Amino acid sequence: MHTDSAKRFDRGKLKGLQTQAVVLPEGELVRSRPFQDRGPLPLLVEPAVPDLDLADWAAGNRAFVDESLARHGAVLFRGFGVTRPEDFERFASAVCRELFDENGEHPRESVSGNVYTPVFYPSGKQLLWHNENSFNHRWPSKILFCCARPADSGGETPLVDSREVWRRVDPQVRRRFEEKGVMYQRHYGGGPGLDWQTVFRTSDPAVVEARCAAEGFEVLWKEGGAVLRTRCVRPAVIAHPVTGEPCWFNQAQHWHIACLDPETRASIVESYREEDYPRHCYFGDGSTIEDSVMAEILGIYRELEVVFPWLPGDVVLVDNVMAAHGRNPFAGPRKILVALGDMRSYDEV
Fold it and tell me: What are the tens digits of pLDDT across the range 246-280?
């Protein structure tokens, strides 16, 4: 779809609409086209008229936004000049039923209301592709990013079509994941990462146990309660809640030790027994996910990823089930804003 009605539009009247919901058809105010030729993800949407307020336009064209997201998996809004947290939150509220109040599992810095900075991760390392919070019982169905300031170099947010990952995985490997799911095992305390008191925001083990039981986590206290081990089994593949398409929806590559950089992996192997690794994953029945399997999956993500340079004011709306995201290494200051919306749970899918 590609339309251009700027010549037919009275630009002088537009500024008077900036604080009101725009209810005109999307084709009269924006242009849209696939960002790249080799796949549907992402759809690029740009203003066809100057000074178009993205949040106001989105509020009046929610059906177009929802349909575009369900078809493409991600939408890149470029040229709207959204750099302030409050403007980004207005847009996020326009395209989400509700925004997620962040918890302690992934500490972020709140910027404004339900707008956050990304989870801290060393700038010199690649953050692998993942579907946000897919190891938890509840997860956001939408993730939104806004570029207030791009890095001097690098720092892109690669996107990968989860439907295509499912298609590319070897059918025999895919069947094992579909039948067994993924078991995520994590230790809090006694090593790298956050302790359980920080993550659960309590020093009461009973509160932790109740919360874990509600979320489907198995709990084991170690070293007199100083260390907490949790386990949970989640699906590796789910049907998209809107389209019904099978999607590769898990974080095995974030948890499996074979996916760490060689230096970090060597350090963990030398310091811990496998049952005490800070974080690791298995098939849902506890059997080993072979390193070769994870290498194949990582190769598929690399082959499919779509990378675009951040421009100031860019906003990306991502369907968290249909698309995985990551972060490339970067140099220099970088300010990306994040919002999470429309929570779902495995009970719903």
Answer: 999 999 999 999 999 999 999 999 999 999 999 99
Q: Is 110 helix (H, G, I), strand (E, B) or coil?
A: strand
pLDDT at 1: 39
Answer whether 30's CB lies under 8 Å from 5's CB.
Answer: no
pTM for this entry: 0.88
If one compares 152 and 6, the residue with the highest pLDDT of the two is 152
CA 275 to chain centroid: 28
214 with 297, same domain: the answer is: yes
Same domain, 11 and 142: yes
Distance, CA of 106 to CA of 238 (rounded, Å)? 23
Asked if the structure places residue 115 within a domain, the reply is yes
Nearest alpha-carbon partner for 163 in 231, 68, 72: 72
- Axis crossing angle, helix 291-304 with helix 171-180, rounded to the nearest 10: 110
Domain limits for position 259: 164-301
Closest CA to 88 of 21, 146, 149, 156: 146
Q: Sheet containing 127-130: give its strands across.
A: 127-130, 323-327, 159-161
**E strand or H helix at 86:** helix 85-95
